[in-house]
């Protein structure tokens, strides 16, 4: 066999390997999700309704969206479990102080420290030494 054929077969084998691996991972995730479908779990359906599971019967799930309002949905419409979501990270005082710290300004590029207002014309940076700028302004 020539090297090109061997390379093509190797690429095909890698693609088949990843295809089976992704299929197994997806199947495992679905099974894990289905084990979490129990009464009392806070969920979101694929059409955006949030609620709490009241009962599970085969493929039918009763979800209470508000007191007295119960929906019967298929088991596969549940896409997210709200109990699993991580809590939002609170900023500490150090983070807040670091955001309020003044920027260090490089004197050579002081024109870049502020953004121009809408429609404001920005002059290019003068690259001449400071001494020659003072002489030109006197003339």
In a nutshell, what does this entry contain?
The chain is an alpha+beta fold and 139 residues long. The chain has 3 helices and 5 strands.
Uncertain residue segments? none
Query: Structural class from helices and strands?
Result: alpha+beta
The main sheet comes to:
5 strands, antiparallel
- Report the strand count: 5
The global form is flat
- Which CATH C-level class of the domain at 37-86 is it? Mainly Beta
For the largest beta sheet, what order do the strands appear in spatially?
4-3-2-1-5
Q: Kindly report the average pLDDT value.
A: 77
Number of helices in the DSSP assignment = 3
CATH topology of the domain at 37-86: SH3 type barrels
How far the N terminus sits from the C terminus, by CA atoms, comes to 83 Å
Order of helices and strands: HEEEEEHH
> What portion of the residues fall into strands of 2 or more residues?
15-25%
The appropriate CATH architecture of the domain at 37-86 is: Roll
Helix content: 25-40%
Q: Measured on Cα atoms, how large is the radius of gyration?
A: 31 Å
Throw out a few tags for this protein.
3 helices, SH3 type barrels, 36% helix, alpha+beta, 5 strands, five-stranded antiparallel sheet, 139 residues, flat
């Amino acid at each position: 066999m020539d090297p090109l054929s061997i390379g093509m077969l190797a690429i095909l084998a890698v693609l088949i390997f990843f295809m089976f691996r992704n299929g197994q991972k997806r199947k495992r995730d679905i099974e894990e999700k289905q084990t979490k479908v129990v009464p009392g779990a806070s969920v979101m359906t694929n059409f955006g309704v949030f609620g709490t599971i009241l009962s599970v019967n085969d493929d039918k799930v009763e979800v209470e969206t508000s007191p007295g309002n119960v929906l019967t949905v298929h088991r596969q419409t549940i896409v997210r479990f709200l109990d699993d979501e991580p809590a939002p990270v609170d900023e500490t005082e150090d983070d807040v102080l670091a955001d309020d710290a003044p920027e260090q300004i490089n004197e050579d590029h002081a024109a870049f420290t502020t953004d121009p207002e809408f429609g404001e014309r920005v002059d290019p940076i003068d690259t001449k030494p400071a001494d020659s700028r003072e002489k030109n302004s006197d003339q």
